[in-house]
Amino acid sequence: MGDGKEAEFSLKVMINKEKTKVLFAQVDSHFADFLLSFLTLPLGRIIKALNKHYGDDEAPTVGSLSSLYHSLVNLDSSHFWTEGAKQTLLNPRSSIEDEYKRLKLDIADFQPPKTLYCTEHTWLNRIQSVSVYYDSINRFHTCGCGHTRIGKEDKEKTGCKAASGDGVFTINTASFVISDDLHILPVEAGLLGIILNLGITGADKAEAINVTFGFSEIMSLLKASLISQTPLSDLILNKSRHANSVIVGFEPGASINHLEDDQNPDSKKMILKVVIQKSTGTLLYAQANDDFVEFLFSFLNIPLGGVEHLLAGKTCAKAINNLYLSIADLIDDKYFSTPGTKDRLMKPNVAHGCISDNHMLPLAEECLPDTYSGTTWFSAKFPNGKGSYLKGPRTYHVTDDLIVTPLCVVSVLSSLNKQKIAIYDDVKEVELQIGPKEGLSILKASLTSTSALSDALLNNIPIKQPKPELRV
User: Are residues 160 and 277 located together in one domain of the fold?
Assistant: First the structure.
């Protein structure tokens, strides 16, 4: 559709008479497709897009995911099996990558797949292909075998034709109504159905305005949908709180009890050493092995809709919950462009070739055909036969907001001394077992909390006090 950053959407918006709240907006299928595409974006792709648009100083803080992503950026490549392994995490691919270019705007930094050949491979291996990792900052490609990519013997056949009359996710003839908190409903539901289903009040005294959304407004909507319960009012009526982030609030026990990993002896477990200040109960830091850190980094590969699926539509990002649940409850199957579109939005898979051995959550990879967009595209994501991104064994220092650095005992001791924490009397180390339920709780907390480890673990896992010493 041309240059995505020049395209615009026209919205018909109803606001209350005080001009303090958006009641709803009527949009076309192109805008609806774009809004639904939020659910297909991997978490790392969202953080990268927001950082690129706002700049590092102004980018919103999305829970602990922002600091996790910056930790990955700053972690030396020597910690990874290849530079390509790091780039895969920094630039996570979507399972519907080829469809982004059909959207009216491109916020996903779409990179069409190309046939790029490695100088270390024979012609036979060129046919079988290897993973291509693209560093959009330094503009080079890396082969799955670890060698920097070579010249561009490109065969760009990246077209993905839609069926006649179909949009990316919804049919082109449909119109939709979106509430302030991102419930979405077809216009065909009628005025009364819209008011009742979307919980709209004050519509009898509403005022209509026309609003134009361009690239900048769409980025603001993506930001607001993650950190606000009223994203349309925040954006259209400038009701934002001027803060870069709004922590919605963590709900410790909600929506993770469906993972009964404690009853499954085969469930993967990781050991995490948590250091706590006894007098305050504050989590000072965690000492983690490379498998746990790789598990944290793997969050960046999970699509936002995949997180919603894992958490049964009950993350702490309320507006995204509403968008997700609208697909199941408010939009009939006939409004989707293909029979499988609804399932792909509600259960988006991780892109092919991105799940490592250290990922414990019940995720599925997208199964790509032998030829992807006319280009041979197989995965050799983990070089040297290793099913992991990070080399090991190594030990890392992880803060409450998921800043990851190599463990340096000198630095840790200096930090505790500066905080005037009595190491011998006021610090204890607790060893925790992290299974799928605990891992999912950390993922949930990472979306909205800057104290992800405390919220996910200290509120859910009983910490046994050391037994008192027997004195004779």
Answer: no
CA 284: distance to chain centroid? 26
Same-domain pairing of 40 and 116: yes
- Regarding whether 202 and 91 lie in a shared domain, the answer is yes
pLDDT tens track of the chain, all 472 residues? 344 556 788 999 999 888 889 999 999 999 999 999 999 999 999 999 999 999 988 888 999 999 999 999 999 999 998 878 888 899 888 888 778 878 877 776 655 444 444 444 433 333 333 444 444 444 445 554 555 444 443 333 333 333 344 678 999 889 999 999 999 999 988 888 888 888 887 777 888 999 999 989 999 999 999 988 999 999 998 865 444 444 445 555 544 555 554 445 556 789 999 999 988 889 999 999 999 999 999 999 999 999 999 999 988 889 999 999 999 898 999 999 988 899 999 999 888 778 888 888 988 887 654 444 433 333 445 655 467 899 889 999 999 999 999 999 999 999 888 888 888 888 999 999 999 999 999 999 999 899 999 999 986 544 444 444 434 3
Q: For residue 415, give its domain range.
A: 261-296+392-458
184: helix, strand or coil: strand
Q: Is the dihedral of CA 143, 145, 150, 154 positive or negative?
A: negative
Contacts of 225 (CB under 8 A, 6+ apart): 38, 182, 231, 317, 319, 320, 323
Cβ-based neighbour number of residue 61 at 10 Å? 18
Query: What are the start-end ranges of the H helices in 364-407?
Result: none
Residues in Cβ contact with 449 at an 8 Å cutoff, skipping those fewer than 6 apart = 63, 64, 247, 250, 316, 455
Whether residue 230 sits in one domain with residue 192:
yes
- Sign of the CA dihedral running 405, 409, 411, 412: positive
